[in-house]
Design brief:
Layout (H helix, E strand, L loop, with lengths): L17 H13 L14 H13 L3 E5 L2 H11 L7 E5 L5 H8 L3 E5 L9 H11 L3 E5 L8 H10 L3 E5 L7 E2 L2 E2 L6 E5 L12 E5 L2 H12 L13 H7 L12 H10 L3 H19 L5 E2 L7 E2 L4 E6 L7 H10 L5 E2 L25 H8 L2 E4 L6 H18 L2
Parallel strand pairs: 2-3, 2-4, 4-5, 5-8
Antiparallel strand pairs: 1-9, 6-7, 6-11, 8-9, 10-12, 12-14, 13-14
Helix pairs in contact: 1-9, 2-9, 3-4, 3-7, 5-6, 10-13
Bound molecules: pyridoxal-5'-phosphate (PLP).
Amino acid sequence: MTKPNFEKPFTQQEGMPDEVIDRAVEILKGGRLHRYNTLSGEVAEAASLEQEYAKYQEAKYCIACTSGGYAMQIALRSCGFENGDKILANAYTLAPVPGAIHAAGGKPVFVEIGNDWHIDIDDLQSKAKSNGAKFMMLSHMRGHIADMDAIVEICEEYGISLIEDCAHTMGAKWKGIRSGNFGRAACFSNQTYKHLNSGEGGFLTTDDDEVAARAIVMTGSYMLYQRHGTPPPEEVFQKVRLETPNMSGRMDNLRAALLRGQLPYLDKNVQRWNERYQTLEAGLRKSENLYLPERKQHEEYVGSSIQFQPHNMSVSLIPRLVENCTKRGVEIKWFGDDEPKAFTSRYDSWQYIEDLPELPKIKEVLSRTCDMRVPLTFDLEDCNLIARIICEETDALAT
Ligand SMILES: *Cc1c(COP(=O)(O)O)cnc(C)c1O
């Protein structure tokens, strides 16, 4: 009997709904793509998007910009981060995060990982105590939300400004509070593989008047800052407008239209991702050679990707497992590779960072960590087949 293969691409997103396309065409025909290019009395698409996302996020302010990585850079700077400042950050993250810290002139202090891919709270506590960092960039990497009560407590104890990287948690919650509402600012990505897709794009959200005002000026508002969707009061701008540099990274009206049109579908899509995630999870748990930690019940996650660890086999066999799955059409990524590939890399490949530490735990955990995207173009039957293929190939190599 021949074994079934999977045929669909792992990188295919869903197309835009018709009404989104219609609105985008309308904007193109109008020609006013720049967010400050408005007719008298007209509210720019980018400003409406900011109002709508701030409302969704339950945050006071939303600033739309060019990318998630850019949002991180200006979040840091608008929270007062300066050249040479240290910043705590999880070592398990994606390359744009250390890149944003580097661009802002900062020195990351990498924190270890736990077996459940959460930041290691004990290591965080001890590094917060010992090295005097006044900032923390917390990536909810692959949507795994750590114990936010413990993290907020540590930040309060040591006077640390928390900035959340919510690239994988847009739409997710912890104890009923939206991911992104735990610190001084949060950053979101609207790149094609995230939860809203405008090709490229980012949001910064905050409840802090001055952080919002500085971020608006930094994105390149010139003196048109009051045309933003959620501007703080004029007196706040008066304080910061001349001492804040313009770092040009605005959202345009075309991308804003794409995002506005998708936002009403976000919660429904979160459910659809989770149905797929849970189908995959149940399927993968059928193999005793695959390990998936239980997710914390406080976490209302968005299962737009899934992670698992093959056990009962030597780590040296994992590249073979990846290859065998790929041959059957299932694209899994491996975080354990010494050589960074595609979107994955390990902290020790960011060699522009001075004094990269030796972090044994993260190397151990990532040496077995496999990762897979869950695009909404897969249906539940697809997920069952994918899980079956991964189980079969794992069991064939395990002892
Ligand atoms: C995608 C991503 C980013 C950066 O987003 P861009 O919009 O691509 O700049 C940051 N952090 C994580 C964890 C990401 O996955």
